[in-house]
């Protein structure tokens, strides 16, 4: 089976979050299932730099912009890259300029990506016609529309990685999308009079997937559905939750080049060298308190406001904190202020570093994830893999992947982390206090670590579920 995957990012070429990790890992995971997947990406400067020498597979007018489709294998991925300098050759990130402001033509940039996906489905690239097209998030949300209204025959899958990001634009862009009037209706891409990229993808795709079973249920309700819960409910017979996996080669503590000391479930004492490196990097003292790490965007969704308000209580509970992330400037300031109040107990680094994220997973005692909603989450899976015990809010994929260390879980020997309900200061500190108490019992703590390290966090089972879905649609 030949598949075309359409995404705005894919690791290792371009990454802003977990979407890239998933899109980058899926092709290799699906290969044992007899599925050949090619991934269509925008030609951002960072991508073009990686694929010098790529061959021109086709030329196309992408909604009024002359472009080329380049074919190349890079970073372990078979790629089509949409080389359209007028749309993608600019400084800043994939979605925003250097100041963090959305590009005003994002509707055009990603509608063009979806349009070209539809053209590839119809045979634009000689020798490649996909059997099915898999679109990821709002940036590829118009793919099902271009398939449906453009005369392509292939079924489509729309994956929601985070329903909070929907791609809603003013109605007057519709005339520039190259779609018939019939597409701008309640059964198409119309959304409260405007154009909804994600809404259209959900409405027109043959199947909708979310990245965890719990999240598939949560988005049926207004608290999590972000205005699209009605569409989810109407299409619930075609909504399926498939939990993400991780690349267990890229994330392997026994071979990780970013760790001072390599280790495995039977060599956990070696983690102490990594712990010392975390202390040095974040200016923490060498006391026995457990080090909790946070690797996150600093946003309301991630519960970072509650964490910022709880820093004094966290230290009083007997824990230390090493935080790596960026986002809301006010939260950044509050976290820095907390670090200034508690030198040696709280360390904060603003920004993101892949090597540093590996070091934190390999050296911190636990990873704290107080998200208000989390479609799947990957950092808790990395934590499990690395013996960095997840301390998580009971929501979405966090609920599906972490077994709480309550009395029953500990006695049965199956616990892999700590869960808490409700993202409040009281619930968060209660979970920290439980974590500190568990850490003070070395035998129990090590059992929890080993359980997590032996958990199935790879792609095998999820790949089988995706393959079964694809075949059912064929």
From TrEMBL:
The answer to whether UniProt assigns keyword Glycosyltransferase to this entry is yes
UniProt keywords, alphabetically: Glycogen biosynthesis, Glycosyltransferase, Transferase
GO CC terms in record? cytosol
Amino acids binding ADP-alpha-D-glucose: 15
Tell me the pathway. Answer: Glycan biosynthesis; glycogen biosynthesis
UniProt-listed NCBIfam families? glgA, PRK00654.1-2
PANTHER family cross-referenced by the UniProt entry: ALPHA AMYLASE DOMAIN-CONTAINING PROTEIN, GRANULE-BOUND STARCH SYNTHASE 1, CHLOROPLASTIC/AMYLOPLASTIC
Role:
Synthesizes alpha-1,4-glucan chains using ADP-glucose.
Q: What is this protein called?
A: Glycogen synthase
């Amino acid at each position: 089976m030949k598949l075309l995957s359409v995404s705005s990012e894919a690791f290792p070429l371009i990454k802003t979050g977990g979407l890239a990790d998933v899109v980058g890992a899926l092709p290799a995971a699906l290969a044992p299932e007899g599925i050949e997947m090619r991934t269509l990406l925008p030609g951002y400067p960072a991508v073009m730099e990686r694929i010098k020498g790529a061959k021109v597979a086709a030329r196309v007018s992408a909604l009024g912009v002359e472009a080329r489709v380049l074919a190349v294998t890079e970073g372990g991925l078979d790629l089509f890259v949409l080389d359209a300098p007028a749309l993608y050759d600019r400084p800043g990130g994939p979605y925003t300029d250097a100041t963090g402001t959305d590009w005003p033509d994002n509707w055009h940039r990603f509608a063009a990506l979806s349009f070209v996906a539809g053209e590839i489905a119809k045979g634009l690239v000689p020798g490649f016609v996909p059997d099915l097209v898999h679109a990821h998030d709002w940036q590829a949300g118009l793919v099902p529309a271009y398939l449906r209204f453009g005369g392509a025959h292939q079924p489509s899958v729309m994956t929601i990685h985070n329903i909070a990001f929907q791609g809603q634009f003013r109605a007057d862009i519709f005339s520039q999308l190259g779609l018939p009037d019939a597409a701008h209706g309640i059964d198409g891409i119309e959304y409260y009079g405007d154009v909804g990229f994600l809404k259209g993808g959900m409405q027109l795709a043959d199947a909708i997937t979310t990245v965890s079973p719990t999240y598939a249920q949560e988005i049926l309700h207004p608290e999590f559905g972000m205005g699209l819960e009605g569409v989810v409910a109407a299409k619930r017979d075609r909504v399926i939750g498939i939990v993400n996996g991780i690349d267990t080669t890229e994330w392997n503590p026994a071979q990780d080049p970013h760790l001072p000391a390599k280790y495995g479930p039977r060599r956990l004492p070696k983690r102490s060298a990594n712990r010392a490196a975390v202390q040095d990097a974040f200016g923490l003292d060498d006391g026995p308190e457990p080090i909790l790490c946070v690797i996150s965007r600093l946003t309301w969704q991630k519960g970072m406001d509650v964490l910022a308000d709880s820093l004094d209580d966290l230290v009083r509970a007997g824990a230390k904190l090493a935080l790596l992330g960026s986002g809301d400037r006010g939260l950044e300031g509050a976290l820095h202020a907390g670090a200034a109040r508690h030198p040696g107990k709280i360390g904060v680094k603003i920004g993101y570093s892949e090597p540093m994220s590996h070091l934190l997973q390999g050296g911190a005692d636990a990873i704290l994830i107080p998200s208000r909603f989390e479609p799947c989450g990957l950092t808790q899976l990395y934590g499990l893999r690395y013996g960095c015990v997840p301390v998580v809010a009971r929501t979405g994929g966090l609920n599906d992947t972490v077994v709480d260390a309550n009395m029953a879980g500990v006695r049965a020997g199956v616990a892999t982390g700590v869960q808490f309900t409700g993202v409040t200061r009281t619930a968060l500190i209660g979970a920290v206090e439980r974590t500190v108490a568990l850490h003070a019992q070395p035998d129990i703590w090590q059992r929890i670590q080993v359980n997590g390290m032996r958990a199935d966090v790879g792609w095998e089972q999820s790949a089988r579920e995706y393959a079964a879905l694809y075949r059912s649609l064929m």
